[in-house]
């Protein structure tokens, strides 16, 4: 794990901390009286990519993670789906097969809420790279109106 941290530091050493190649948008769609489909969309700058939620090992890049645990009155229904410009293959920097998304990716999570819940929170943890460097993993807090 220390080796992977050193690799990340090497990739980020020449990068200005202000660069933000990924922007996030959220929406919700009511599908039943207390059931919603939450869509969390990443717009990714050309040349950059974001990793899938599922990677073959935790010894490589940080997988995207959606954290809904701070909400009361919310139950996740299944796992989040992901769709977008998907690429799979060997990542030279990490020496492993990875799934990553270029240009855009949408993570969709179905939830069941108690009747009085009108807003939920999600923290998206993700990592982005561009083939030459990686930015450190980042947590993005999101508020989603139902």
Description:
- This protein is mainly beta.
- The protein has one domain: Thiol:disulfide interchange protein DsbD, N-terminal domain (Immunoglobulin-like), CATH 2.60.40.
- Helix content is 8%, strand content 54%.
- It has one helix and nine strands, in the order H-E-E-E-E-E-E-E-E-E.
- The chain has one helix at residues 2-12; strands spanning 22-30, 35-44, 49-51, 65-67, 74-91, 96-113, 119-126, 128-129, 138-145.
- Strands 1, 2, 3, 5, 6 and 8 form a six-stranded antiparallel sheet that branches.
- A hairpin with a 4-residue loop joins strand 5 (74-91) and strand 6 (96-113).
- The chain is elongated.
- Mean pLDDT is 89; it is low at 1-16.
Major β-sheet profile:
6 strands, antiparallel
What's the count of strands?
Answer: 9
Shape: elongated
* Mean pLDDT figure: 89
CATH superfamily: Thiol:disulfide interchange protein DsbD, N-terminal domain
Number of domains: 1
- Helix vs. strand class: mainly beta
Quickly count the helices: 1
Give me the Rg, rounded: 16 Å
Helix content: under 10%
Q: Give the H and E element order.
A: HEEEEEEEEE
Low-confidence parts: 1-16
As an assembly, this protein is: single chain
CATH topology: Immunoglobulin-like
| CATH architecture assignment name | Sandwich
Strand-residue proportion: over 45%
Which CATH class is shown? Mainly Beta
Distance between the termini: 40 Å
């Amino acid at each position: 794990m220390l080796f992977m941290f050193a690799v990340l530091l090497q990739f980020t050493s020449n990068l200005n901390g202000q660069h933000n190649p990924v922007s996030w948008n959220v929406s919700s769609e009511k599908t039943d009286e207390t059931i919603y489909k939450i869509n969390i969309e990443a717009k990714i700058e050309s040349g950059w990519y974001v990793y899938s939620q599922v990677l073959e090992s935790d010894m490589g890049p940080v997988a995207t993670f959606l954290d809904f645990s701070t909400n009361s009155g919310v139950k996740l229904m299944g796992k989040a789906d992901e769709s977008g410009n998907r690429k799979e293959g060997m990542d030279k920097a990490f020496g492993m097969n990875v799934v990553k998304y270029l240009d855009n990716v949408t993570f969709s999570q179905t939830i069941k809420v108690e009747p009085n819940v009108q807003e939920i929170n999600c923290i998206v943890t993700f990592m982005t790279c561009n083939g030459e460097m990686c930015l450190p993993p980042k947590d993005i807090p999101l508020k989603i109106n139902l």
